[in-house]
Amino acid sequence: MDKASFYAVEGVDGCGKSGMVRHIVAHLEAGGRAAIATREPGGTPQGEQLRALLLSGNDDAWDQQSELLMMTAARVEHVRRVILPSLSRGVSVVSDRYVGSTIAYQGAGRGMAENYIRLLHREAVGDVWPDLVVVLDLDPEIGLARSKRRLSDGAIDEGRFETLDLAFHHRIRQSFLDQAARDPDRHVVIDARGTPEEVHARTLEAIDGWHTN
């Protein structure tokens, strides 16, 4: 495990991404690899400001085109200020969401053309894609209940996407599965049902298997 790698953890809301990112970082560090945790939208002061705008309030707060452009703007800062500099120093990066979420949410969810999203990504940040995408697959109904409970318990104003109907979230789930099916060498799909310990074990086993291939 000499080369620094870029990992993205994807999935529907409430699938356990944030906790999984922390476990992956700890696992990499235990194996002797420097690693950092980050997130999208966010990861930089600029990105966190955009996150506050994008994830709070009512769904009609932004036109879908504005939403896509702000997600991409946050990613430009993230890639240029965090991801690429870290990788160049030999530090692996584990991100809670990346462009796969844009393809799922703004593409499959909102109905924007995936080709346009991919073109915008290439023009904005170049050919920067994760080495490995971990998709935590979970029934959106279960995930939404978890996510709404977490936001309520923590008094966190980031529930804009949780207000959308279940059909929207089913489209997102299917998009993640479709992305993984089209690019299996870069994706692992993990059954996110069960206890956190069970899901963590499945994920770390899959990552170790990917490293040995």
UniProtKB/TrEMBL annotation:
Domain Thymidylate kinase-like residue range list: 9-201
Binding site for ATP: G11, V12, D13, G14, C15, G16, K17, S18
Keyword vocabulary terms for this entry: ATP-binding, Kinase, Nucleotide biosynthesis, Nucleotide-binding, Transferase
GO molecular function terms listed in the Swiss-Prot or TrEMBL record: dTMP kinase activity
EC number: 2.7.4.9
Catalytic activity: dTMP + ATP = dTDP + ADP
Record-linked PROSITE patterns: THYMIDYLATE_KINASE (PS01331)
Gene3D superfamilies documented for this protein: P-loop containing nucleotide triphosphate hydrolases
Pfam families in the cross-refs: Thymidylate_kin
SUPFAM superfamilies: P-loop containing nucleoside triphosphate hydrolases
EC primary class: transferase
Cited CDD domains: TMPK (cd01672)
Family: Belongs to the thymidylate kinase family.
PANTHER family (alphabetical): THYMIDYLATE KINASE (PTHR10344), UMP-CMP KINASE 2, MITOCHONDRIAL (PTHR10344:SF4)
HAMAP family: Thymidylate_kinase (MF_00165)
Function: Phosphorylation of dTMP to form dTDP in both de novo and salvage pathways of dTTP synthesis.
Name the record gives this protein: Thymidylate kinase
Biological source species: Sphingomonas agrestis
